[in-house]
Amino acid sequence: MTRLRACLGATAAVGLAALGTTALVAGNASGAPSALSNRWYAAAPYLMPLDNDPPNAGAIMDATGLKAFQLAFVLAPDGGGCSPTWDGKAAVSSDTAVKSVIDAIRAKGGDVSVSIGGYGGTKLGQACSDAAATASAYQQVITKYGLHAIDFDLEEPEYENTAAIKNEIGAAKILQQNNPGLYVSVTTAGTADGTGWFGKQMLLEAKSQGFTPNNFSIMPFDGGFNGAASQTAALTKFNQVLQSTFGWNEATAYAHEGFSGMNGRSDTGEMFPQSDFQTVLDFATGHNMDRFTFWSLNRDRQCSPPDNGGRTSGTCSSVPQNSWDFAKYSVKFAGATPPTTPPTTPPPSTGCKTAWNATTAYTGGSEVSYGKHNWKAKWWTQNETPGASQWGPWQDEGAC
Question: Is the pTM for the entire model greater than 0.90?
Fold first, then answer.
Protein backbone atom coordinates (compact mmCIF):
# COMPACT_ATOMS: atom_id res chain seq x y z
CA MET A 1 0.00 0.00 0.00
CA THR A 2 2.47 2.62 -1.17
CA ARG A 3 0.14 5.56 -1.70
CA LEU A 4 3.11 6.86 -3.73
CA ARG A 5 4.78 8.00 -0.56
CA ALA A 6 8.00 6.04 -0.34
CA CYS A 7 9.79 8.87 -2.15
CA LEU A 8 7.73 10.26 -0.58
CA GLY A 9 21.93 13.21 13.83
CA ALA A 10 19.97 11.72 16.77
CA THR A 11 19.00 13.61 19.90
CA ALA A 12 18.83 11.97 23.29
CA ALA A 13 15.34 10.75 24.15
CA VAL A 14 13.79 12.41 27.18
CA GLY A 15 10.93 10.77 29.07
CA LEU A 16 7.87 13.01 29.01
CA ALA A 17 6.83 11.92 32.44
CA ALA A 18 9.99 13.49 33.80
CA LEU A 19 9.23 16.81 32.13
CA GLY A 20 5.78 17.18 33.57
CA THR A 21 2.52 18.23 31.94
CA THR A 22 2.81 21.92 32.72
CA ALA A 23 6.13 22.36 30.94
CA LEU A 24 4.92 20.60 27.84
CA VAL A 25 1.70 22.53 27.55
CA ALA A 26 3.50 25.83 28.05
CA GLY A 27 5.96 24.93 25.31
CA ASN A 28 3.19 24.08 22.90
CA ALA A 29 1.15 27.15 23.75
CA SER A 30 3.99 29.59 23.15
CA GLY A 31 3.13 31.49 20.00
CA ALA A 32 0.60 28.90 18.89
CA PRO A 33 -2.37 30.12 16.82
CA SER A 34 -5.98 29.55 17.76
CA ALA A 35 -7.28 26.11 16.91
CA LEU A 36 -9.91 25.40 14.29
CA SER A 37 -12.88 23.24 15.16
CA ASN A 38 -12.17 19.51 15.30
CA ARG A 39 -14.36 19.07 12.24
CA TRP A 40 -11.76 20.85 10.12
CA TYR A 41 -8.90 18.68 11.40
CA ALA A 42 -11.11 15.67 10.69
CA ALA A 43 -11.57 16.88 7.11
CA ALA A 44 -7.93 17.76 6.37
CA PRO A 45 -6.64 16.07 3.17
CA TYR A 46 -3.02 14.95 2.98
CA LEU A 47 -0.44 17.24 1.41
CA MET A 48 3.25 16.51 0.88
CA PRO A 49 4.86 19.94 1.33
CA LEU A 50 8.32 18.90 0.10
CA ASP A 51 7.69 16.36 -2.66
CA ASN A 52 5.29 15.28 -5.43
CA ASP A 53 5.18 18.75 -7.01
CA PRO A 54 3.57 20.45 -3.98
CA PRO A 55 0.61 22.63 -4.95
CA ASN A 56 0.11 26.07 -3.48
CA ALA A 57 -1.98 25.61 -0.34
CA GLY A 58 -3.28 29.17 -0.48
CA ALA A 59 -4.58 28.66 -4.01
CA ILE A 60 -6.44 25.55 -2.87
CA MET A 61 -7.96 27.48 0.02
CA ASP A 62 -9.13 30.23 -2.31
CA ALA A 63 -10.59 27.81 -4.84
CA THR A 64 -12.36 25.44 -2.44
CA GLY A 65 -12.82 27.04 0.97
CA LEU A 66 -10.58 24.38 2.56
CA LYS A 67 -9.04 25.43 5.86
CA ALA A 68 -7.03 22.44 7.12
CA PHE A 69 -4.21 20.33 5.68
CA GLN A 70 -2.67 17.03 6.80
CA LEU A 71 1.07 17.48 6.18
CA ALA A 72 3.03 14.28 5.49
CA PHE A 73 5.28 12.64 6.70
CA VAL A 74 7.40 12.85 9.85
CA LEU A 75 9.88 9.95 10.07
CA ALA A 76 13.08 8.91 11.80
CA PRO A 77 16.28 10.07 10.06
CA ASP A 78 17.38 7.92 7.15
CA GLY A 79 20.80 7.66 8.78
CA GLY A 80 19.36 6.42 12.07
CA GLY A 81 18.37 8.02 15.36
CA CYS A 82 15.33 9.04 17.37
CA SER A 83 14.74 12.59 16.15
CA PRO A 84 11.93 13.83 13.88
CA THR A 85 12.54 14.62 10.21
CA TRP A 86 10.46 15.33 7.15
CA ASP A 87 10.58 12.28 4.84
CA GLY A 88 13.64 10.99 6.71
CA LYS A 89 15.80 13.77 5.27
CA ALA A 90 15.04 17.26 6.61
CA ALA A 91 15.40 17.69 10.38
CA VAL A 92 12.35 19.26 12.02
CA SER A 93 14.62 21.16 14.42
CA SER A 94 16.17 23.22 11.61
CA ASP A 95 13.23 23.27 9.22
CA THR A 96 12.15 26.51 7.61
CA ALA A 97 10.55 25.22 4.39
CA VAL A 98 7.57 23.43 5.95
CA LYS A 99 7.17 26.16 8.55
CA SER A 100 6.80 28.71 5.77
CA VAL A 101 4.00 26.61 4.28
CA ILE A 102 2.30 26.40 7.67
CA ASP A 103 2.69 30.14 8.26
CA ALA A 104 1.11 30.91 4.87
CA ILE A 105 -1.84 28.63 5.62
CA ARG A 106 -2.38 30.20 9.04
CA ALA A 107 -2.11 33.69 7.58
CA LYS A 108 -5.21 32.86 5.52
CA GLY A 109 -7.16 31.60 8.56
CA GLY A 110 -6.33 27.91 8.17
CA ASP A 111 -4.27 25.38 10.11
CA VAL A 112 -2.49 22.04 9.77
CA SER A 113 -2.23 18.63 11.32
CA VAL A 114 0.99 16.67 10.89
CA SER A 115 1.02 13.00 9.92
CA ILE A 116 3.69 10.64 11.17
CA GLY A 117 4.52 7.31 9.59
CA GLY A 118 3.09 6.36 6.23
CA TYR A 119 4.39 3.58 4.03
CA GLY A 120 8.02 4.42 3.27
CA GLY A 121 11.03 5.10 5.44
CA THR A 122 11.87 4.27 9.06
CA LYS A 123 9.29 5.28 11.64
CA LEU A 124 10.14 6.80 14.99
CA GLY A 125 8.31 3.96 16.72
CA GLN A 126 10.86 1.62 15.15
CA ALA A 127 13.89 3.79 15.91
CA CYS A 128 13.16 5.05 19.44
CA SER A 129 13.79 2.94 22.53
CA ASP A 130 10.35 3.13 24.11
CA ALA A 131 7.04 5.01 24.13
CA ALA A 132 8.41 7.93 26.17
CA ALA A 133 11.31 8.48 23.79
CA THR A 134 8.97 8.21 20.81
CA ALA A 135 6.61 10.74 22.37
CA SER A 136 9.51 13.08 23.12
CA ALA A 137 10.44 13.09 19.43
CA TYR A 138 6.86 13.86 18.39
CA GLN A 139 6.58 16.54 21.08
CA GLN A 140 9.36 18.41 19.30
CA VAL A 141 7.11 18.57 16.22
CA ILE A 142 4.07 19.69 18.22
CA THR A 143 6.05 22.39 20.00
CA LYS A 144 7.92 23.65 16.92
CA TYR A 145 4.76 24.17 14.88
CA GLY A 146 2.28 24.86 17.69
CA LEU A 147 0.12 21.93 16.57
CA HIS A 148 -3.46 21.32 17.61
CA ALA A 149 -3.74 18.01 15.71
CA ILE A 150 -1.58 15.00 14.83
CA ASP A 151 -2.15 11.85 12.78
CA PHE A 152 -0.54 8.46 13.45
CA ASP A 153 -0.43 6.68 10.08
CA LEU A 154 0.31 3.09 11.14
CA GLU A 155 0.56 0.70 8.21
CA GLU A 156 2.94 -1.65 6.43
CA PRO A 157 5.61 -2.49 7.31
CA GLU A 158 5.63 -0.82 10.76
CA TYR A 159 2.35 -2.20 11.99
CA GLU A 160 3.74 -5.70 11.62
CA ASN A 161 6.32 -4.80 14.32
CA THR A 162 4.74 -5.38 17.73
CA ALA A 163 7.34 -3.34 19.63
CA ALA A 164 7.06 -0.40 17.22
CA ILE A 165 3.26 -0.31 17.48
CA LYS A 166 3.51 -0.45 21.27
CA ASN A 167 5.81 2.58 21.09
CA GLU A 168 3.52 4.47 18.70
CA ILE A 169 0.32 3.84 20.67
CA GLY A 170 2.09 4.61 23.92
CA ALA A 171 3.45 7.83 22.45
CA ALA A 172 0.01 8.82 21.19
CA LYS A 173 -1.42 8.33 24.67
CA ILE A 174 1.35 10.42 26.27
CA LEU A 175 0.89 13.24 23.76
CA GLN A 176 -2.87 13.19 24.27
CA GLN A 177 -2.40 13.48 28.04
CA ASN A 178 0.26 16.18 27.93
CA ASN A 179 -1.30 18.37 25.23
CA PRO A 180 -4.90 18.97 26.34
CA GLY A 181 -7.28 19.36 23.42
CA LEU A 182 -4.88 17.78 20.91
CA TYR A 183 -6.86 16.14 18.08
CA VAL A 184 -5.41 12.66 17.51
CA SER A 185 -6.27 10.40 14.58
CA VAL A 186 -4.91 6.90 13.96
CA THR A 187 -4.93 5.75 10.33
CA THR A 188 -4.39 2.16 9.23
CA ALA A 189 -4.97 -0.23 6.34
CA GLY A 190 -8.46 -1.13 5.14
CA THR A 191 -9.67 -4.54 3.97
CA ALA A 192 -12.99 -6.07 3.01
CA ASP A 193 -13.20 -7.17 6.68
CA GLY A 194 -12.69 -3.59 7.84
CA THR A 195 -9.02 -3.99 8.61
CA GLY A 196 -6.63 -6.93 8.58
CA TRP A 197 -4.98 -8.95 11.33
CA PHE A 198 -2.28 -6.37 12.05
CA GLY A 199 -4.81 -3.57 12.15
CA LYS A 200 -6.86 -5.53 14.66
CA GLN A 201 -3.76 -6.18 16.76
CA MET A 202 -3.10 -2.44 16.77
CA LEU A 203 -6.62 -1.84 18.09
CA LEU A 204 -6.06 -4.41 20.81
CA GLU A 205 -2.81 -2.66 21.77
CA ALA A 206 -4.74 0.62 22.08
CA LYS A 207 -7.33 -1.11 24.25
CA SER A 208 -4.66 -2.66 26.48
CA GLN A 209 -3.07 0.75 27.02
CA GLY A 210 -6.40 2.47 27.65
CA PHE A 211 -5.90 4.80 24.69
CA THR A 212 -8.82 6.23 22.72
CA PRO A 213 -8.01 8.74 19.93
CA ASN A 214 -10.56 11.00 18.29
CA ASN A 215 -10.85 8.35 15.59
CA PHE A 216 -9.44 5.21 14.06
CA SER A 217 -9.50 5.65 10.28
CA ILE A 218 -9.11 2.96 7.64
CA MET A 219 -7.81 3.31 4.08
CA PRO A 220 -10.14 1.22 1.88
CA PHE A 221 -8.00 1.09 -1.25
CA ASP A 222 -5.10 -1.01 -2.58
CA GLY A 223 -6.94 -4.09 -1.29
CA GLY A 224 -9.08 -5.24 -4.18
CA PHE A 225 -11.77 -2.60 -3.72
CA ASN A 226 -14.20 -1.83 -6.52
CA GLY A 227 -15.83 1.54 -6.06
CA ALA A 228 -17.76 3.17 -3.26
CA ALA A 229 -20.01 0.19 -2.46
CA SER A 230 -17.00 -1.90 -1.46
CA GLN A 231 -15.64 0.98 0.60
CA THR A 232 -18.83 1.59 2.54
CA ALA A 233 -19.11 -2.18 3.13
CA ALA A 234 -15.58 -2.09 4.63
CA LEU A 235 -16.51 0.89 6.81
CA THR A 236 -19.53 -1.06 8.06
CA LYS A 237 -17.33 -4.05 8.88
CA PHE A 238 -14.80 -1.82 10.60
CA ASN A 239 -17.57 -0.36 12.72
CA GLN A 240 -18.34 -3.88 13.92
CA VAL A 241 -14.64 -4.44 14.69
CA LEU A 242 -14.59 -1.28 16.81
CA GLN A 243 -17.73 -2.39 18.62
CA SER A 244 -16.36 -5.83 19.46
CA THR A 245 -12.91 -4.51 20.44
CA PHE A 246 -13.91 -1.62 22.68
CA GLY A 247 -17.40 -2.62 23.76
CA TRP A 248 -18.98 0.37 22.02
CA ASN A 249 -22.44 0.49 20.54
CA GLU A 250 -22.84 1.22 16.82
CA ALA A 251 -23.28 5.00 17.21
CA THR A 252 -20.26 5.35 19.50
CA ALA A 253 -18.14 3.29 17.12
CA TYR A 254 -19.11 5.50 14.16
CA ALA A 255 -18.31 8.58 16.27
CA HIS A 256 -14.75 7.19 16.57
CA GLU A 257 -14.43 6.00 12.96
CA GLY A 258 -12.84 7.66 9.96
CA PHE A 259 -12.36 7.20 6.22
CA SER A 260 -9.12 7.91 4.37
CA GLY A 261 -9.49 7.38 0.63
CA MET A 262 -7.31 7.71 -2.45
CA ASN A 263 -8.61 10.03 -5.15
CA GLY A 264 -8.59 8.76 -8.72
CA ARG A 265 -6.41 5.77 -9.60
CA SER A 266 -4.95 3.84 -6.66
CA ASP A 267 -1.54 2.16 -6.56
CA THR A 268 -3.11 -1.14 -7.62
CA GLY A 269 -5.27 0.31 -10.40
CA GLU A 270 -8.56 0.71 -8.55
CA MET A 271 -10.52 3.74 -9.76
CA PHE A 272 -12.27 6.14 -7.37
CA PRO A 273 -13.80 9.07 -9.30
CA GLN A 274 -15.74 11.97 -7.80
CA SER A 275 -19.01 10.01 -7.74
CA ASP A 276 -17.44 7.44 -5.39
CA PHE A 277 -16.26 10.18 -3.08
CA GLN A 278 -19.77 11.63 -2.96
CA THR A 279 -21.23 8.23 -2.07
CA VAL A 280 -18.73 7.67 0.74
CA LEU A 281 -19.21 11.25 1.96
CA ASP A 282 -22.97 10.66 2.17
CA PHE A 283 -22.31 7.45 4.12
CA ALA A 284 -19.89 9.19 6.48
CA THR A 285 -22.16 12.12 7.24
CA GLY A 286 -25.24 9.88 7.41
CA HIS A 287 -23.58 7.74 10.09
CA ASN A 288 -22.02 10.68 11.96
CA MET A 289 -18.48 9.43 11.33
CA ASP A 290 -15.66 11.47 12.80
CA ARG A 291 -13.28 11.81 9.84
CA PHE A 292 -13.23 12.05 6.03
CA THR A 293 -9.89 12.59 4.31
CA PHE A 294 -7.90 11.41 1.30
CA TRP A 295 -4.47 10.91 -0.25
CA SER A 296 -3.68 13.42 -1.62
CA LEU A 297 -3.93 17.07 -2.60
CA ASN A 298 -0.75 16.64 -4.64
CA ARG A 299 -2.85 14.31 -6.83
CA ASP A 300 -6.01 16.46 -6.86
CA ARG A 301 -5.61 17.71 -10.44
CA GLN A 302 -6.01 16.24 -13.89
CA CYS A 303 -3.01 14.68 -15.55
CA SER A 304 -1.73 16.60 -18.55
CA PRO A 305 -2.38 15.30 -21.10
CA PRO A 306 -5.36 13.40 -19.59
CA ASP A 307 -4.08 9.99 -18.52
CA ASN A 308 -7.44 8.15 -18.58
CA GLY A 309 -6.42 5.82 -15.77
CA GLY A 310 -3.32 4.38 -17.43
CA ARG A 311 -0.85 4.98 -14.58
CA THR A 312 -0.89 5.95 -10.94
CA SER A 313 0.87 9.26 -10.35
CA GLY A 314 1.94 11.18 -7.28
CA THR A 315 1.07 14.48 -8.93
CA CYS A 316 -2.30 13.90 -10.64
CA SER A 317 -5.36 11.65 -10.28
CA SER A 318 -5.61 9.92 -13.68
CA VAL A 319 -9.35 10.66 -13.80
CA PRO A 320 -11.11 13.56 -15.58
CA GLN A 321 -11.45 16.43 -13.14
CA ASN A 322 -11.07 20.11 -12.43
CA SER A 323 -8.24 21.03 -10.09
CA TRP A 324 -9.15 20.46 -6.44
CA ASP A 325 -12.45 18.65 -7.15
CA PHE A 326 -11.74 16.13 -4.41
CA ALA A 327 -10.79 18.77 -1.83
CA LYS A 328 -14.35 20.06 -2.03
CA TYR A 329 -15.66 16.82 -0.51
CA SER A 330 -13.52 17.49 2.55
CA VAL A 331 -14.91 21.03 2.69
CA LYS A 332 -18.43 19.62 2.64
CA PHE A 333 -17.60 17.13 5.40
CA ALA A 334 -16.39 20.03 7.54
CA GLY A 335 -19.82 21.62 7.11
CA ALA A 336 -18.82 24.40 4.73
CA THR A 337 -19.95 25.16 1.18
CA PRO A 338 -17.27 25.27 -1.53
CA PRO A 339 -17.27 28.24 -3.95
CA THR A 340 -19.11 27.67 -7.21
CA THR A 341 -16.55 29.40 -9.44
CA PRO A 342 -14.19 26.96 -11.21
CA PRO A 343 -10.58 26.82 -10.02
CA THR A 344 -7.98 28.47 -12.19
CA THR A 345 -4.86 26.54 -11.14
CA PRO A 346 -3.36 25.00 -14.28
CA PRO A 347 -2.55 21.28 -14.57
CA PRO A 348 1.05 20.11 -14.28
CA SER A 349 3.45 21.03 -17.06
CA THR A 350 3.40 18.85 -20.17
CA GLY A 351 7.15 19.19 -20.83
CA CYS A 352 9.18 15.96 -20.94
CA LYS A 353 12.48 15.72 -19.06
CA THR A 354 15.68 14.34 -20.58
CA ALA A 355 15.17 10.76 -21.78
CA TRP A 356 16.17 7.94 -19.43
CA ASN A 357 19.44 6.19 -20.31
CA ALA A 358 20.20 2.66 -19.06
CA THR A 359 23.93 3.39 -18.67
CA THR A 360 23.55 6.60 -16.67
CA ALA A 361 23.76 6.49 -12.86
CA TYR A 362 20.98 8.59 -11.31
CA THR A 363 20.89 9.94 -7.75
CA GLY A 364 17.75 10.47 -5.68
CA GLY A 365 15.72 13.38 -7.04
CA SER A 366 16.97 13.02 -10.63
CA GLU A 367 14.23 13.48 -13.23
CA VAL A 368 13.94 11.71 -16.58
CA SER A 369 11.30 10.88 -19.18
CA TYR A 370 10.34 7.41 -20.36
CA GLY A 371 7.24 6.09 -22.12
CA LYS A 372 5.79 9.61 -22.46
CA HIS A 373 5.87 10.05 -18.66
CA ASN A 374 8.23 11.99 -16.42
CA TRP A 375 9.87 10.04 -13.59
CA LYS A 376 11.78 11.03 -10.44
CA ALA A 377 14.42 8.79 -8.83
CA LYS A 378 13.66 7.88 -5.21
CA TRP A 379 17.25 6.80 -4.60
CA TRP A 380 20.46 5.97 -6.52
CA THR A 381 19.74 3.77 -9.53
CA GLN A 382 21.27 2.53 -12.75
CA ASN A 383 19.84 0.32 -15.51
CA GLU A 384 16.45 -0.03 -13.77
CA THR A 385 13.68 0.83 -16.24
CA PRO A 386 11.13 3.40 -15.01
CA GLY A 387 7.77 1.75 -14.38
CA ALA A 388 9.09 -1.81 -14.52
CA SER A 389 7.99 -2.31 -10.91
CA GLN A 390 5.76 -0.21 -8.67
CA TRP A 391 8.24 -0.96 -5.87
CA GLY A 392 11.21 0.16 -7.98
CA PRO A 393 13.37 3.29 -7.73
CA TRP A 394 11.29 5.48 -10.04
CA GLN A 395 8.26 7.57 -9.05
CA ASP A 396 5.81 8.42 -11.83
CA GLU A 397 5.44 12.20 -12.12
CA GLY A 398 2.68 12.01 -14.73
CA ALA A 399 2.29 12.10 -18.49
CA CYS A 400 4.31 14.56 -20.56
Answer: no
